[in-house]
Amino acid sequence: MSLVTPRAAGTRLESNERRIDGDAKVSGAAKFAADFELPGMLWAAFATSPVAHAKIGSVDATAARAMPGVRAVLTGADIGEHCFGRRLFDRPAIAVDRVRFIGECVAAVAAETRQQAEEAAAAILVEYDELPALFEPEEALAPNAPVLHEHPERYHFHGGTRPSAPHPNIQGESILAKGDVEAAFAGADRIFEDEFTTPRYHGGYIEPRATVVWIDDDGIVHIVGTNKSPYAFREGFSICTGVPLEKVRIEPAYIGGDFGGKGLSVDEYPCYFLSRATRRPVKYVRSYLEDMRSGTVRHASRTTLRTGVTSDGKIVAVDAKIVFNGGAYAAGKPIATLVPGMDPKLPYDIPAGRLRRTAVYTNTVPGGHMRAPGDVQFIFAFESQLDIIARELGIDPFELRLRNAVRDTGSDLDGVPYLQPAALRVLERLRELRPRRPLAPGRGRGIALGVRHIGGGKAELSLRLDASGKVTVQTSAMEQGMGVFSVVQRVVAVELEIDPSLVSVQQLPAMDGAPVDPGAGASRQTHVTGGAALRASQRLRELVQSAAPEWPQRLDWHAAARIAAREGIVVRASFEAVHHHEPAEHGFCGIAVEVDAQTGQVTLHDAVCVADVGTVVNPVALRGQIAGGFVMGLGDAMTEELRVVDGRIENASLADYKLPAQVDVPPLRFVPIEGFPGPGPFGAKMAGEINTAAVAPAIANAIADACGARVHDLPLRAERVLAAIERVRGLHDDDTS
Questions:
Q1: Maximum distance among all Cα pairs of the chain, rounded to whole angstroms
Q2: Number of Cβ atoms within 10 Å of the Cβ of 581
Q3: How far apart are CA 362 and CA 647, in angstroms?
Q4: What is the mean pLDDT of residues 522-536?
Q5: What are phi and psi for residue 573, nearest 5 degrees?
Q6: Per the domain annotation, does 167 fall within a domain?
Q7: Does the pLDDT value for residue 730 go beyond 70?
């Protein structure tokens, strides 16, 4: 059944939406995990490792257990080895015999108050026998490097067999290949080789992680948490703890931002063991210091990129090697290869290519997924090098991209043909927007293209039509800020041709019998959850029409309500899509900057984002996603960096970790390209991750255009820009001496 239907014609989707969860959030009525309170509830606190790598000699909790209000103290020795993860279950709930990064949990406390729990955790004495620590992938991949995980055979690998790796400190490795790469390089007129690096990033969400766990009289474990994928977490929790799946229930709660970091649950596991020990509810709310010190971060990376081109700028071969600093555990990655991100895409038709991605264990904070995972690192490198090539060959950077943009017969890096490639549409729209006037000295313009897969998964939901003519949607989808409930409401209202006020959304726990949802992530909620809403609406329409075949095409909802009152109308439907088997999403970012050649200071003057968005379901939310993605990319490019020295994060607070503020954001234009339907309801496409990765290379390219200096490392701090300017000056002085 097609998801493109005539119901969306006219203005039914063009009017601005009202967020279905807006009133609850602005009034304070919305319940987040930290808001839950239960009778008899205890508070949790954790003792964590101050060293990056060590054997645990002994844990003395005598003083902690004797402190007022303390009801339980648990160590790894008390609960045994219970490891969790999204694909590879390699991270212990509580460290048993070894710690592998600063901030790892070595003991858990439950007490009557939060202060009592924290004081007791601080009183736990741990003896550490320090081991050699590895902080960089290059160290960890050395032939004689210490092995950080000596018994990987103990780890559960979910969904198959763990791929083998050429080194014991490799979390996972993936190689994509297309064509005869070496022969293609041999036929190239020019070969360019460059190296680029990116740092670790924190998601910067408003709400730190929180959880409440309790066990009822029937032995059912109830969990409220900040996890955006309740069914995947439920299954992983059962595997880690041994609690039967039917005894695990993930209760609904709002999530205060995610950006990928809340796909992994961490604190729920020790809280469960504390609740089991005390038979009381246990609550834990992280401070931001704790969250930044041990939360899931975007991987630092080093990319070596070798590209062969003809003299007229046609790309003939690419060989890319990306090494990710995976941190102490691979638990945060849900991808089977254990490399952060789906197979990356390029909006160019490249005859021969090879991409090797390697994630490496180190004694640093564990890495995981963050908005556009894998793309921020790779697109920064590739789009930066494209400008290097263009300027070296004397070709306009726009023209170089146009010559290489994927056409209808083009294929991806893995050789799979593109479905509905839109790179040319985006570039042609950009051509119309390009400024014609010359820039003043010290100013420059930069561009970058991006492409992102549209995520898949399976979602179910049900619709109930009551006697008043109102429709209630039941779903287990999690609302982490993208507006999925509003998507569902609008899709149902448009398909049934009723006012959105007649459609309400009820969020159900993740449990046996409830509608399954794949969770927020991979830009799939409009596509998959919205697809299920459309299927259910079509089924409801068919049922009502079959009950009253004499009705006209437009439903008489008063009559339908009478049938519902007499017989009841409830329908349930599902929609499923496969990752990478849908059209990719294409977007563009253009930036104008000014560079102070004496200080390296970069000022952004204006920006434009173009995206092929298909049918727009939520107009306001779409603009919010594009603007938010741009600002996040701006932080990646200019200000954000988790600085790690000897395994310790030096700037683990939002006072020192510089998220962009409104004053940092230049005027931004968004130009949507509509009219080319995608796989979502009524022809919608994704928008949540399309422009984030293109921002940093666009700025780097604009800086090079302004002053001739190329910066290969993010963030693009003034001192790095100044150092690049001085290198250019030095080369110029050498040439003229």
A1: 95
A2: 12
A3: 9
A4: 89
A5: -145, 160
A6: no
A7: yes
Residue 251 predicted with pLDDT over 70: yes
How much is the mean pLDDT over the chain? Answer: 90
Residue-range definition of the domain harbouring residue 480: 6-30+456-577
Both 650 and 725 in a single domain? yes
Residues 536, 540: Cα–Cα separation, whole Å = 6
Report phi then psi at 5, rounded to 5. -125, 160
CATH number at residue 271: 3.90.1170.50
C-alpha torsion 626→520→342→621, nearest 10: -10
Q: Which of 242, 271, 294 is the last residue of a domain?
A: 294
Least confident of 94-98, 156-160, 316-320, 552-556: 552-556
Q: Show the tokens assigned to 635.
A: 């932080």
Judge whether 282 and 72 are in contact, CB under 8 Å: no
Residue 497's nearest CA partner among 530, 469, 525 is: 469
**Rounded Cα distance, 428 and 406, in Å:** 13
For 31-86, write each residue's pLDDT tens digit: 999 999 999 999 999 999 999 999 999 999 999 999 999 999 999 999 999 999 99
Question: Using alpha carbons only, how large is the chain's radius of gyration in Å?
Answer: 27
pLDDT at residue 2 in the model: 44
Strand partners, 202: none
Residue 10 binned pLDDT confidence (cut-offs 50, 70, 90)? very low
- One domain for residues 521 and 608: no
Are residues 111 and 237 both part of a single domain?
yes
Q: Do residues 536 and 463 lie in contact, with contact meaning Cβ atoms separated by under 8 Å? A: yes
59 with 21, same domain? no
Closest CA to 680 of 583, 589, 587: 583
Tell me, what amino acid is at 470? K
By three-state DSSP, how is residue 418 classified?
coil
The tokens for 170 are 């490799």
CA distance 518 to 477: 8
Q: Which of residues 556, 577, 598 is at a domain's end?
A: 577
| Cα gap 714→670, rounded to integer Å | 25
Residue 667: the pLDDT is 95
What's the pLDDT score for residue 1? 40
Q: Which two tokens stand for residue 62?
A: 């005598």
Q: 666: burial class by Cβ within 10 Å (0-12, 13-18, 19+)?
A: middle
Q: Which tokens go with 355?
A: 């991409």
Q: Please tell me the predicted confidence (pLDDT) of residue 546.
A: 73
Picking from 654, 644, 657, the residue whose alpha carbon sits closest to that of residue 103 is 644
The 3-state DSSP class for residue 139 equals helix
Q: For residue 727, is it within any domain?
A: yes
CA distance 555 to 564: 14
Please tell me whether residues 717 and 599 are part of one structural domain. Answer: yes
Tell me how far apart the alpha carbons of residues 304 and 463 are, in angstroms, rounded to a whole number.
51
For residues 545 and 441, membership in a common domain is answered with no
**Does one domain contain both 396 and 522?**
no
Which parts of 335-375 are beta strand (E)?
A: 352-361, 367-368
Q: Distances in Å between the alpha carbon of 423 and those of 5, 353, 401, 428, 668?
A: 26, 19, 9, 9, 21
CA distance 250 to 284: 16
**Looking at the domain assignment, is residue 522 inside a domain?**
yes
Q: Is residue 200 part of a domain?
A: no
Within 10 angstroms of residue 41's Cβ, the number of other Cβ atoms is 16
Roughly what angle, to the nearest 10 degrees, separates helices 692-707 and 375-393? Answer: 30
Q: How many domains does the chain have?
A: 3
Three-state secondary structure call for residue 643: coil
More reliable by pLDDT, 236 or 344: 236
Total number of residues shown for the chain: 737
Instruction: Using alpha carbons, select from 379, 391, 442 the residue that is nearest to residue 637.
Output: 379
Is the pLDDT at 283 greater than 80, yes or no? yes
Same domain, 246 and 118: yes
The CATH number of residue 556's host domain is 3.30.365.10
